Amino acid sequence: MPWPQPSTHAFTSRCAALRAPWRALFTLLALLSALTLPLQASAQAPDMGYVEGRIVSIDEFTNEAVVQLSGQRLVRAELGYDVTTGPVEVGMPTFRVGNRVELYFSTGPDGQVRYAVADWVRRPTLLLLTAIFLIVSVVVARFKGLRAFVATGASLALIIAFLIPAMIAGYNPILVSMLGVGGILILAIYFVHGVNWSTTAALVGTLAASFITLILGVIFTELAFLTGYGTEEGMMISFAAGDVDLKGLLLAGLLIGALGALTDITIVQASVVRELAHVNPSFGVPELFKHGMNVGLDHIGSLVNTLVLAYTGTALPLLVLLHVNEIPWLHSLNLELVAAEVVHTLVGSIGLVLAVPFTTFIAAVMFRGDVLPMKPGELEHGHKH
After folding, report:
1. Cα separation of 265 and 260, whole Å?
2. Where do the structural domains in the chain lie, given as residue ranges?
3. For residues 231 and 253, what is the distance between their CA atoms, to the nearest angstrom?
4. Is the separation of the CB atoms in 155 and 199 below 8 Å?
């Protein structure tokens, strides 16, 4: 049975009403507060669903847990394993007294409601980790760290409230993702680093690299005969939401996955060229491009490595599974599941590499002669070299 999801109507309406980037903080806080709300009975059917409670005791003879639900009501729930020997799966943790857990309940033919412990409640841990991330960001990067945190939350809200519902409704995922990318880039660049000529050059360079990445993704998705049905998630989506274009969904994931690294390198390149032009206004486009690329070449190697390792880390369980089953590597590359990851990694890396000369050239044309006015602190977001 699919896990029940809380209603997103209010959350979607709230996101649609955003008029300024800073207001995304309230959307993010609303999302975080939802993490602490206990799960109530599913609305899918009156005789089955999920509830949450806390284990107060464990009966070793019946392999059941006594769980306290909201309202202090106690129920007995099956644990699904022998308490004395532990779970059959190696390394699987056991339920303990004090754990907050999720219970699955169903009504039997005799009218009696039966409960089974299904999983741990993880939302409080996620909320704690999010709070630590916010604190570290603010302590280390101060107000810019807070803006980055808000921008990240707003980007996630944009994906949840706009991209995903539009794709489920059957709209073209490529078009939807390009519109979403524009909004994410405005938040990631303008809101975090400010509105100035440097960030504008970075935004244009990122959009150009994103467009090339998308074109390459379309071409090689077709050449590699990627359908989107190569994963378990894709198959489940095809049954649950038949209007979703799975091939387009692959491309949308490719584009969004490369955005973080793209914005990082384009911001740096635009700042480097801006500072070169400011220090030596006599530099023309060739000189600015040459010196800017000297810095960009250093970033290309490290960021491509970062992107490849990030994709590899995500696919690590798959690589282990292929190795355990002793599937030859040449055959593995023909599996759509593996081929899709390879296309994602290589196309994303190509877009990342091309972002450097694109942004450097755009910035060199804009900043030659240092005639564009510079705002206070405009160069403070660039990396130091």
Report:
1. 9
2. 48-120, 169-370
3. 14
4. no
Confirm whether pTM is higher than 0.85: no
Average pLDDT on 279-290 reads: 92
- Dig out the tokens for 370 from the structure: 């240092």
Here the tokens at position 4 are 């029940």
And the tokens for 221?
């998705």
- pLDDT value, residue 385: 43
Q: Is the pLDDT confidence value at 281 over 60?
A: yes
pLDDT score for 315: 76
Cβ contacts of residue 270 below 8 Å, gap of 6+? 198, 199, 201, 202, 205, 359, 362, 363, 382
Q: Identify which has the larger pLDDT, 30 or 250.
A: 250
The CATH homologous superfamily to which domain 48-120 belongs is: Nucleic acid-binding proteins (2.40.50.140)
Rounded Cα distance between 17 and 149, Å, is 20
Structure tokens at 31: 């999302």
Strand partners, 116: 78, 104
Return the beta strands (E) in 186-256 as ranges: none
CA distance 80 to 361: 62
Confirm if 139 and 9 have CB atoms less than 8 A apart.
Answer: no
Tens of pLDDT, residue by residue over 199-237, are 999 999 999 999 999 899 999 999 988 888 877 788 888
Q: Are 217 and 251 in contact (CB under 8 A)?
A: yes
pLDDT digits (tens, 9 = 90+) for 350-383: 988 999 999 999 999 999 998 888 777 676 654 4
